[in-house]
Amino acid sequence: MEFFHHAKAVRLKNSHGKYLTAEEDEESVTQGRSGSSKAAKWTVEFVENSDDIIRLKSCYGKYLTASNQPFLLGMTGRKVLQTLPKRLDSSVEWEPVKERGAVKLKTRYGQYLRANGGLPPWRNSVTHDTEWVLWEVHVVEIVVAQSPTGKTPPPPPVMVKEDSFSSAQLPTRKTPPPTLPQPPPPVMVKEDSFSSAQSTSPARSQSSHSSSFSRQESIDSLVSSPPKGGSSRRVSPPKGSNGRIIYFHIANEDGKYDEGFEELSITFKGNGLNELKSKLEVELGIYGITLCARSPLNNGKLYPLRLQLPPNNVDMHVVVVPPSSQEGEDSE
Prior knowledge:
Elements: H1 2-5, E1 7-14, E2 19-22, E3 29-32, E4 42-46, E5 54-57, E6 63-70, E7 78-83, E8 95-99, E9 102-106, E10 112-115, E11 126-129, E12 135-142, E13 160-161, H2 164-168, H3 191-199, H4 202-220, E14 232-233, E15 244-250, E16 264-268, H5 273-284, E17 290-294, E18 302-304, E19 316-321, H6 326-331
Parallel strand pairs: 15-19
Antiparallel strand pairs: 1-4, 1-12, 2-3, 4-5, 6-7, 7-11, 8-9, 10-11, 13-14, 15-16, 17-18, 17-19
């Protein structure tokens, strides 16, 4: 089920506008209006050797469980609880079934997670029964892809260029000093020849100096000025080369999202809108999405992004609209 494949934690909202909530007694499961509370956050675990069966763990470290206890005598619905069994069995396993942009959560015995309404004691109760309700899946945390070893790759090595002078300073094996020949006698230079050498071809000398400076300038743009008698080192790349931060909300099937929820984020290198869209589709496991932004001139209404991303790796805030959303269909 694509709603859960890249989800680390989710909130589940029913047709009554309430969220699946773990009570403080660490046993009861009810419905609550506050989607921002930690009690409405459920950690997703996939059952071993299965891509379709999940477990949901509450903030108290206990699993959403389809128990055998009847909710009321004479009624078919049975209680849904938080438990931590010594051995994880089928009572804590749920199969998401996609339905109109939302999901039904089915037990291994063919019953469904149900949010009840009406008068007490049914009001705000949660049971599993043959009748079902739809649950919207709000992704709170996503699974971050890691390298195969599970470790962050080391930074690239710094390129160091040693000149002939510094290499001459390296320690060497002690050897007796060689016998040097006598220096040659000094060369006598006439003053007129020196003056003529100074006056020859000033334009040519200036041109040669200019071309030499141009080459040196192009090298200096990549290599910092070395210390006196030291070596040259490559300048570290600008901060922008690390990419930009993309903050995003995920809209529901009505094209709406709750601004009270904390935004998700990824690091993105590049300026291509299609490239960003493809990366988010892979991260979320939802394909055919539309990237939208909030209009500051129209009460925050969503409009689809069409152009390139802003330059200079400026951070962005966007809204991901799934293909099942009416808003996404209108913006296509």
